[in-house]
Amino acid sequence: MTDRIASGFHPFVLPFLVGMLFVLSYCLIGMVRILFQLPREDRRRFYLSLINPKTALKNVKDIFLNCLIHVRLWKRNPLLGYMHSSIAFGWFMLIVLGHLEVFLFVPGRAKLLYYPIFFNYFVAESDTTLKGALLFFLMDFFLLMVLSGIALAVIKRVRSRLFGMRHTTRSSALDLVGMYALWLIFPLRLLAESLTAHISGGSFLTLPPNWLALRIFGYEIHMLPAWWAYSAALCVFMCVLPFTRYMHIPAEMLLIPLRNAGLKIRNIHKGFAKVEVLSCPGCGVCIDACPMSASRANLKNCTVYLNRQLRRGNKRRINQISDKCLLCGKCEAVCQVGVQGPELRVAHRSSRRYGINQDYSNVVPSVPQGGHKLLYFSGCMTQLTPRISKAVISVLDKAGVDYEWMDKEGGLCCGRPMMMAGRKEQAEQLVRGNTRLILGSGADILLVNCPICYRIFKEEYDLPGVRIVHHAEFFDELAASGALTMAPGKENICYHDPCELGRGCGVYEEPRRLLSQCGGLVKAGHEKSESICCGGSLGSLTLSYSEREAITRNSYADLVVSDPDLVATACPLCLATFSRYADRPVRDLAEIVDKATD
Amino acid sequence: MDFGFVLNPSSTVDLGKVDTTLYDRLARRCPDVKTCMACGSCSATCSAAQYSGMSVRKVLLGLQRGNDVSAMLSNCMLCGKCTMVCPRGINTRNLILTLCRIHDGEGSK
User: What pTM was estimated for this model as a whole?
Assistant: First the structure.
C-alpha cells in the first residue's frame, strides 16, 4: 500500500471535516454545560464514580453492550436488534479498521482526521499482502453488514408491522433529513470504493461492481463525484445530528455513566433529565406499550413525544403530556435506553406553583393504642372497597396474628397521590404525620393492602425496625409457615399485576404463588412487567372518565384472553376500576385467600 | 333586651351581586364542573371532610355563591375517592388542583 496523492489532501474531504468538527464541538460543549448544570453533590458523585474501577468497568461494559450491540433490543425484538446493531457495530468496526489500515500502511498520515474515512481514495495497491487482503475483506464484510441494516431500516419505514410494531413515531422534518442522509452514506461509500477498487484494491463487495462497470461502459468512470457525494452525505448527517433523534448516539454514552453513578432527576430542563431526553432514540416502542394508546386521540401523549416536546420547549404540550400520564411505568420498563418517563413527568409537575398550599398541621388522626406486633394500614382507597379490609382482617384472625388496625376510623393519606401530583412538600407533611403514628405504636410489621401506599412506604418513609409488607407477601409467608392452609377451589383465576406493586415494587411471584394454591392460575395476555394499567391510576391528573373507560376496557380484554372464571388483583383501585366494566367477578387477593381458608 | 328568641340574618343570596370570577375561571379550565348535580357522593367519601369540612359539592356551591373555599381545600390529600365515586364522571382531582393553582391564596378572589 502506498500513498497515491502526494499532498494527502483533496477538497472533497472538506464537507466531512466541517460536519465532524461541528458535531464534535457541539457535543463537547453540550457535555460540559450539562455537567455544570448538575448540583454540586451530584457532580462530585459522578466524578468519584468515574475513578471507581467497579463502576468504570460497568460503564465500559454497558456502553459496549447497549450502544453498539443493543443487547436489550435483541432480547425484545431480534429483528430490530439486528437492524440497530448491524448499523452501529458495523459502522464502529469500519471506523476502527479504517484507523488500523492507516496505522499499518501509511503511519505518517495518522494525524489526519479524514484519512481513515476516505482511505481507499488516497492509497494505491502496490502488491497484495496477506494483511491487506484480510483487512479489505473485513472492511467489505462490515460494509455489507451496515448495508443489510440500512435495507432493513428502509423496509421498516414502509411496513413497520413486519417488525412487530403497530405504531411508530411520526418523524419530524429534520429527523427525515438526518434519516435519508444516514441511508445514503453507506450506498455512496460502496459506490465510491467500488469505482476506486482497481487502484486501491478491494474485496468481495467492491471488486465485482468495479469489474462490471468496466465491462458495461468500457472505460473507467470518473470516481470523484461519488467521493464528493459520500462526503456530502456525511456532512449533512453530522450537521443535523444535534437537532434530530440521532442525538441519542452521543447522549447515551453520557447517560450510561451518569446513571451508573446513581444520579436522579431533579430539574426537568437541566442536567441528568436533559441527558435522558436527548438519549431518547424516538424508536416508538413506548407508543404500543402505553395504556393510553387504546384510544387514537392519546397516541401522541406517550414518552417519546414528551421527549420531543421537551427538546423543542413547547410548554403547552409538555403540560398536557405530563398531566395526562397514568405514571404506570410501562414505557420505562420497555425503553431500550431506560428513559424514566414517569420521573420526568413528576419533575415537571413539581415545577408548578400553587395559590393554596395544603397544610395538615390541624389534622389529628386517631392514635394507635400500640402494644401489637402488627399494624394494619388499609389506606384511603380501601374505604371504597371495604370487602378488602374485611377479608384481610378475617385472614389475620384465622392465622392468629396479633394486629391493630391503624386507620379504621379514617386517617392520614399515605402521601403518594400528592407525590405523584408533584407536590412534594405536601406529601412530606403526610409522610411525617404517618411516620410519627407508626413509630409510636411500637409495631414490628406494617401491613398494607394498597400498592399505592406500599410504594411510598417503601420509597419515602424512614421506619427503622419496621418491616413494610404488602398483604400478598404477608399471606404468602403465612401460607409457607403453615399458619394458613388453603383448600384449592375449582375456579380458574387470572391475576392482574397492579402497576405500583409490580413495576413499582417488583412483587410478581408472591401473589401468583398464593393464587395457585387457591385455584387454577391462568395467564393474561400481558403479564408482570408488561401488564397493562387498569386505567384508574391516580398518576393521571387530567385523563377524563371516558378516556379512562377506553383504557380499562382494553386492559380488561387483555386480562381475560384465557377466559378465567374470575379476575384477581391486589389493589383496591384496580378492583374498583375493573368492577365497573367487568363481565365476571373481580376479587382482591385477600378475598380469594379468605374464601379458600374457610 | 331578651325576647327569648333571635332573628337569624337573612340567607338570601343575591346572585346579581355575587362575584363568580373564580368559578368562571375554573369552569373555563375544567368544563365538567358544570355537569355536577350536587349529589354529594364526593362529600360522603372524603378523607379530609372530618378535618376541614371538605366537600367538592360544597366547594362548587361556595364558588357559585362567591364564598371563600380555601379553608375547605386546605386539608385535601388528593386521595381520589371523590373521582372514583362521581356518578357524572367529573375529574374532581383535576378540579381541586386547578382551583389550588388559580387561587391567589389570600382567601379572596
Answer: 0.90
